[in-house]
Amino acid sequence: MWNYEKRLQYPVHITQTNPKVAQFIISQYGGPDGELSASMRYLAQRYTMPYNEVKGLLTDIGTEELAHMEMICAIVYQLTKNLTPEEIKASGFDKYYVDHTLGLWPQAAGGLPQNAVEFQSKGDPITDLFENMAAEQKARTTYDNILRLVKEPEIADPIRFLREREIVHFQRFGETKRTSNLIPSLIQ
Questions:
Q1: What's the Rg (C-alpha) of the chain?
Q2: pLDDT tens readout for residues 39-61
Q3: d(CA 140, CA 166)
Q4: Domains and CATH numbers, the chain
C-alpha cells in the first residue's frame, strides 16, 4: 500500500525537555482533533467510497496522517525523555506518569483517552468529505492554539509544518468535492 521510510516527514530535534508543553501537544496524538483520529477516519472511509479518485485521496491523506502521528509522538517523547521524579512532579506531569510512566498514550490535553467516537465514517461520500474538511480545520485550529503557547523554534517549527499540512488536506478535500462530480451522481 505504501513505502515506509525510517525517517520523519519533517525533522524533530528537541534538545530541552518540557513536560508542561508535552501535556498539550499530546492532544494532537490522541485528542478529538488529533492525528490518530484523522488517520483512522480516512483509512476507514476509503472502503465505502464509491469513487476511485476519492478513495485514492483518502488513502494518501490517511497514510500521511500516520506520519504526522509519528511526528507528534517524537515531539512528546523528546519533551519528556529522561525526566527525573522531581521534574515530573514540578511540571504537573505526575498524573500521566502514574498511569503511563513516560510511554506514549493517546489522550487529549485534558486527559481524556482517545475514543473511536472522535473519528467519523458515515459511508456517504458528501457527508464524509464535509466531515473531513471540518476535521482538517479543527486540527489547524488546535495547531494554531499550540503555536500561541509555544515559542521555542525547535518545537514550533515542526508544529508549523503540521499546521500547513492540515491546510493542504483541507484544500485537497475541497478540490475533490468540486471536481469529482459527486453531487450530480448522488442526486440521480
A1: 18
A2: 999 999 999 999 898 999 999 99
A3: 6
A4: 19-182 (1.20.1260.10)
